Model the fold of this input.
Amino acid sequence: MNQMEVSFSATLDNENFARTTVGAFLTPLNPTIDEIIEMKTIVSEAVSNAIIHGYNNNPECHVVIKMEIEDRLVRLVIQDYGKGIENLEQVKTPFYTTAKDLEHAGMGITIIETLADSLEIESVINIGTKLIITKRLKDHG
Done:
């Protein structure tokens, strides 16, 4: 099993860093372009949710990404220690958002669920939120 962990300031400027880091970590698996795009999109949505909703854009806070790869199964954990989610079922509803002024708001979890094989959300009010995402990359040997 190959694994990595990275922590970074909760600023939207670091969203690209998170996407690039995950993409680079996948490189030894020789993923398809579509798989890279899908994983980077998953990371982008999860990280921006942590920054915007978990931390209210507070750059003094940190987002943590943990990633494990075994065979071609990718397990991605994206975690914040922010305000948590009050209603987990409501957050899975397309277009539901607590940031109605943002463009494309309310689609992040739906996009992650669509692109991933599985998504688990663990959240405790004032403790934080952890997204556990799995995706199996295709065998193309």
User: Anything to note?
Assistant: The chain has four helices and five strands.
